[in-house]
């Protein structure tokens, strides 16, 4: 373990795991409670289109994927609010369109020297100091925002219409949350990958709900769970020579189902 801590890429990955555990552990609660879990899949796959635009134009894919994901998430939210489309329909269209667009842009770029697989499935070697700085900045803004607006967000989460009538600016809050969702997904792509990242949008809160119904404890449990599976998955992937993102998601899913089994046993006695 001491040997690993001496490696720059590993310490970078550990810092990212710590920061992402706070981000996903908190974000997941609101996504799951609002039954918008599939939205994470739609936005994460939109990142593929953004990455492909960056490859085609020769721009850092972080910037293009962030802009593309943010615009996609906000546009989808506006369309749903207007009543012109439902979330599941919109996400299904966004999901396929973004992947198709990405495939076209990559095909247009005949030759490229870019680690596309690292973006699709994660690559801890790709984590840089810039990634950590962006993650830290996002955490420093997102966590205080959540606690400052906690009651308004909860009100909107459980009864959006009544919240709007009561003076809560639900449209603005919803837009801000969608922007945070896009940002958190984009900054975590290098660890988990576009294909698998939607699991971290859903699993933390789903795990927390297995343990408690108190929302503060659900969030705390989600943060602890995310940190455990990310660090555990990171270590397992290193020692077993496995893909990091796939190992993290597989470990997280296994832990989740183990606790479902334990709860079932507890209820039967």
Would you write up a description of this structure?
The chain has 269 residues and is mainly alpha-helical. It has one domain (2-261): ABC transporter involved in vitamin B12 uptake, BtuC (Orthogonal Bundle), CATH 1.10.3470. Helix content is 83%, strand content 0%. It contains 14 helices and no strands. It has helices at residues 2-5, 8-33, 37-57, 61-81, 87-108, 116-121, 129-148, 150-158, 160-165, 170-187, 189-192, 198-211, 215-240, 244-268. The mean pLDDT is 84.
Tags for this model:
single chain; 269 residues; ABC transporter involved in vitamin B12 uptake, BtuC; 0% strand
CATH superfamily: ABC transporter involved in vitamin B12 uptake, BtuC
Oligomer: single chain
Mean pLDDT: 84
Number of domains: 1
- Give the count of helical stretches: 14
Catalogue the unreliable spans.
none
Helix content: over 70%
Total beta strands? 0
Which value, in Å, is the CA radius of gyration? Answer: 19 Å
Strand fraction equals: under 5%
* Topology as a string of helices (H) and strands (E): HHHHHHHHHHHHHH
What best-fitting shape do the alpha-carbon axes yield? globular
Q: Mind telling me the CATH class?
A: Mainly Alpha
Structural class: mainly alpha
Task: Output the CATH topology.
Answer: ABC transporter involved in vitamin B12 uptake, BtuC
Distance between the termini: 41 Å
CATH architecture: Orthogonal Bundle
For the biggest sheet, the summary is: none
């Amino acid at each position: 373990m001491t040997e690993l801590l001496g490696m720059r890429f590993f310490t970078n990955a550990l810092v990212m795991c710590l920061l992402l555990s706070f981000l996903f552990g908190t974000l997941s609660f609101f996504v799951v409670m609002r039954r918008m879990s599939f939205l994470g899949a739609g936005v994460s796959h939109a990142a593929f289109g953004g990455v492909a635009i960056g490859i085609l134009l020769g721009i850092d894919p972080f910037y293009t994927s962030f802009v593309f994901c943010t615009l996609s998430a906000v546009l989808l939210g506006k369309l749903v609010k207007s009543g012109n489309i439902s979330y599941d329909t919109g996400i299904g269209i966004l999901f396929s369109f973004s992947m198709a667009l990405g495939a076209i842009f990559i095909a247009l770029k005949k030759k490229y020297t870019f680690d596309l697989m690292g973006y699709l499935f994660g690559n801890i070697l790709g984590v840089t100091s810039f990634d950590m700085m962006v993650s830290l900045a996002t955490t420093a803004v997102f966590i205080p925002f959540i606690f400052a607006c906690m009651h308004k967000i909860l009100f909107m989460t459980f009864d959006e219409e009544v919240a709007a009538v009561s003076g809560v600016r639900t449209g603005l809050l919803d837009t801000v949350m969608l922007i945070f969702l896009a940002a958190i997904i984009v900054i975590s792509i290098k660890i988990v990958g576009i294909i698998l990242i939607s699991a971290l949008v859903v699993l933390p809160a789903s795990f927390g709900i297995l343990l408690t119904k108190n929302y503060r404890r659900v969030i705390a449990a989600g943060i602890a769970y995310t940190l455990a599976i990310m660090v555990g998955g990171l270590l397992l992937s290193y020692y077993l020579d496995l893909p990091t993102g796939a190992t993290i998601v597989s470990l997280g899913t296994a832990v989740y189902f183990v606790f479902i089994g334990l709860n079932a046993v507890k209820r039967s006695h």
